[in-house]
Amino acid sequence: MSAKPIVAQEVNASKMKSTHYSLVFMLAIALLASCHHDAAIQPEPPVERVPTAFQGVKTVSLAGVSVEVVIDKPALPKVDVLLLFHGTVMYDSLILGAAQNTLEAFKRITDRSDLMFVSVAYPEQNLLMGDNLLHAEAALLWVKNAAESELGVEIGKIFLAGHSQGGYLAVRLNHLYETDGVVANAPGPLNLLYRCDLEERGVLPSGMACTLIRNTFGPTTTHPWAYHSRSLLAFTAIQKSPLLLVQGMNDSPIQMQNWPTFKQQLAACTACDSVQVLELLQAGHGALFERAEARPVYNGFLGR
Amino acid sequence: MNTYKQDLTAHTKVVAPPQSFDIRVGGKTVKLHAIQSGEVAVKANFYEKKGPGPLSKLNILLGNAYTPYLPIWVWVIEHPEGSVLIDTGERHLANDLNKHLANESWMLRFQFMHAARFDVLREQEVDLQLKQLGIQTADIAKIVLTHLHLDHTDGLVHFPKTEVLVSKHEMRTAKNTMPTTYPKGLKMKGVDLKCGDFQYFNRVAPLSASGDLWLVETPGHTHGHAAVLWKTDEFDIIFAGDVTYDQNQLLQGTLAGVHSDFAASRKTMRNILAHASKFPTLYLPSHDVNALNNLRQRRFLS
After folding, report:
1. Is A216 close to B132, i.e. CB distance below 8 A?
2. What is the pTM (predicted TM-score) of this model?
3. Residue A38 has what pLDDT?
4. Which residues in chain B touch residue A214, judged by CB atoms under 8 angstroms apart?
5. For residue B86, what are the β-bridge partners?
6. CA angle B198, B202, B205 (to 5 degrees)
7. For B56-102, where are the E strands, in sequence order?
C-alpha cells in the first residue's frame, strides 16, 4: 500500500519535468519571436495628454493644516494661477460659498482666459485675526509645490488677490512669500488698535475680531501690541512682490481714517517691491468689482 | 523690586524682522541673528519669587497680576562649522494654550494656563524668520536647547530632522515639558557635561571643534538648565536661557518664583557674575527686553 503512491509520484514528477522543459522551450521561442517582432515596430509618437478643464473643490494640506480650495482650471496645458481670498463671513459654514463667490467675482473682471483660479475657503470663526494665515500659506505652498503634479498642468506665474480680509491675508502673505504680484481690494483691518478702542468706548458696536483679541489679551490699554501687530499697518516694512492696492474712497469711515497712513507707510517702505495704488472716488468697499475704470488697471497688472 | 518695567521703545511700529550682528571669531566675521518669536507675559509671582520655598509656588497660582509681555528670543549663530540655533521659541498656536496643550495632562495644562500668556504671530515663528534671513530650516546643523520649557521647545516642530542637543541632566530631570508638541521622530541627544577648564562653570561640554562654543551648566531655573557660552575674539557671550529673565535680575540677585532650585539659582548667578568679572561678557537672557540694546551697545556685565 505504501509503495504505490511513491511510484505514482515519481511517474508524475518525470511527466511534470518533461512538460516543464517543453513549456520553457516554447516560452523561449515565443520570446525570441516577440523580440524580433518588437524590433520591426516603429517607435510610437509620444501621446499628447489632452488638457481638460476642471471645476471643483479640493482639500489641500500642508504640515497638518488642511484647507478647501475651489478650483476653476481652463483646458490648457499651461496656466498662470490667481490664488484668491474671500472677505469676512459670519460663520465657517459660509466660507465655501464665499470662496465660490469670490472666484466668480474675480473671474467676471478678468480678461485673461489662460488663468487658473484657486479660491481659498480659509476659516475665520474663533480665530484671532490673521491666525488663518496658516491656511492661506498652506494653499499658496500647495500651488507652488504640488498643484502641477496633482492637477496635471504646468504652472507659470502665480498671483494672489483678495477682497477686504482676503486682501489683508494676501498682503500678509506678500510679507513672507515672493509671487508674481498681489492685488488687494480694500484690504483690512488696517488698524485694529483704533477700531477696537472705538468698540471699547462704545462708539462702535462690538465685532468678532476685537472681541476675540480682547478676550485673549485684555483691552487695548493693557496690551496694545496685540491689536497693532494684527493690523495691516504693522506689515508695511516688507512686501516681497509687486502690489496693486484698490481702494474706494467712499469705504467705511474706519477704513478711510487709516488708509492715508497705510499708503504713506508703503510709499516710504525701502524693502518693498513696487506698490501701485488705485483710489476710486465715489466708490465703496467693492470698488474693484463695481467700477469699470478699475478693470483695465487690474488686467494690466495681471498681464505683466 | 520688579525689574520688568516694559521698554515701550522695543515695540516698533511694524512686525520687526530678525536683527543681525557681526561678531569676530577666530579672526573671521560670524553672523549672529536675534529672532523674536513672539512675546510672553507671566504671573508677577512667577517672574519674581514671592514668599518662602514651596509657598512661592502656590503664590504663582494665587496671584492675579501679570508682567507686561516680554520677548521670546531665539539666537542663530552662522558658525563656520555649521549654523547653530539656540532654543526654538514659540508658535502662534500657543495663543490658545487650552487647545495647543489639549493632549497634555489636565494638571500641566491648568498650571501653564494660570502662569503664562503668549502672543505670537505666525510670521514670528522661527522657520519664517529664518527664511527672511535666507536660511532654510534644513541649513541648521544643530539646535541647542537651554532647557525643555515650551517657549524654548515649541519651534522644534519646524526641525524634525535636525540634531537637537540638551544637557543630559535636563533630559533626565525636566518637569513641565510638553512632549505632545514635539515633532514625530524627534531625536533629542543628551549632552554629558563634564568638569572642564572654565573656572566658574562646574561642568561644560564643547559644542564646536574649534573650542569657541560651549554648553555650560547653569542649574536653578530647571535642575538641568544649561547656557551657551560663546568665546569670541573680543568678549564672551552667554546665551542665558532663563537663568534670569533679564540682566537686572542677575545684577540684583532677584530670584524668579518659578525656579526649581533657588539655592542652585543663586550659585549659578554668582558664577556668571564671577565669570563676567574676569572676562568681558555680554549676558543675553531669553526674555530680556533690553537684550538687543545690550548687544548692540556692547553693555558688558562687568
Report:
1. no
2. 0.87
3. 43
4. none
5. B75, B144
6. 70
7. 70-77, 83-86
